[in-house]
Amino acid sequence: MLSRREALKTIALSTGAFALSSGFSQAQQAPSEVHKLPALGYDYDALEPFIDAETMKLHHDKHHAAYVAKLNQALEKEPSLATRPLEDLLRDPAALPESVRTDIRNQGGGHYNHTLFWQLLRKKENNAPDADMAKVLAANFGSVAAFEEQLQAAALKQFGSGWAWLVLRAGKLFIEGTPNQDNPLNTGGFPILGLDVWEHAYYLKYQNRRAEYLKALMQVLNWDFIGERYRQAKS
User: Fold this and answer.
1) Distance (Å, rounded) from C-alpha 157 to C-alpha 153?
2) Distance in angstroms between the alpha carbons of the first and the last residue of the chain
3) Contact between residue 90 and residue 106 where contact means Cβ atoms under 8 Å apart
4) DSSP bridge partners of 163
5) Cβ atoms 144, 210 nearer than 8 A
6) What is the pLDDT of residue 32?
7) Tell me: the pLDDT tens digits for 122-140?
8) Which fold has domain 4-42+51-119?
9) Calpha distance 74→107 (Å, rounded)
10) HSE of 53 in the Cβ direction (CA atoms, 13 Å)?
């Protein structure tokens, strides 16, 4: 399990929200350089055989990088937004200037969602939630197995591209789906865990077999990170 010191390096609580990684840093830079592509954090082949190296390289280096570049381009139109945390921008898209509203929701959401997603994955022997997190999942969904079934079911039901989430709302956990690069921040929730069901996340290896991909994801969830993220959110 992560030590508290290690967890706080990854998850920082600020005004009720988390700055998940340096990918969300708001340094004093030109708007075009505000957001950076964060490091993947492990080798491209680290999740083999569940997620293949070619997919991870394409997913991180091309797709995620494109979200970052397009988000920075959008912020050039509204430089006053460049110093605001990405989480704040995503919490209330309707309040954003119309000129950048759609781009920040889509490109900013893509950057946020993927920065979280990389941290949710890790290959580990006997991978499972710790005892405390297992009790939380059992209390909310019946059992760990029932939670995994419900999360995968939500991901399978998501029509087209999107995500399936474990969401904290008003102190309670829910399973929800969102289209495109939307996430629970848009509607007042806080994402604890998200499964990417865009085809680029799995098509090279699994083609149209989304269910098989989702079962593979269950094998590489980083439960140390997820459990600590939940505990920090609750505190």
Assistant:
1) 6
2) 18
3) no
4) 178, 196
5) no
6) 53
7) 999 889 999 999 999 999 9
8) Helix Hairpins (1.10.287)
9) 9
10) 5
**Which of the residue ranges 5-9, 32-36, 194-198, 231-235 would you say has the lowest mean pLDDT?**
5-9
Rg (CA), the chain: 17
Q: In this structure, are residues 170 and 161 in contact, taking their beta carbons and an 8 Å threshold?
A: no
The reply to whether domains 4-42+51-119 and 131-234 share a CATH topology is no
DSSP string, the chain: ---HHHHHHH-EEETTEEE-SGGG---S--GGGSS-PPP-SS-TTTTTTTS-HHHHHHIIIIIIHHHHHHHHHHHTT-GGGTTS-HHHHHH-GGGS-HHHHHHIIIIIHHHHHHHHHHHTB---TT----HHHHHHHHHHHSSHHHHHHHHHHHHHHS-SSEEEEEEEETTEEEEEEEETT--GGGGT-EEEEEEE-SGGGTHHHHTT-HHHHHHHHHHSB-HHHHHHHHHHHH-
Pairing of strands 12-14, 162-169: unpaired
- Amino acid code (one letter) for 22: S
**Res 235 pLDDT > 90:** no
- Please name the CATH architecture into which domain 131-234 falls: 3-Layer(bab) Sandwich (3.55)
- Give domain limits for the chain: 4-42+51-119, 131-234
Burial of 73 (0-12, 13-18, 19+ CB in 10 A): middle
Say if residue 16's pLDDT is above 70: no
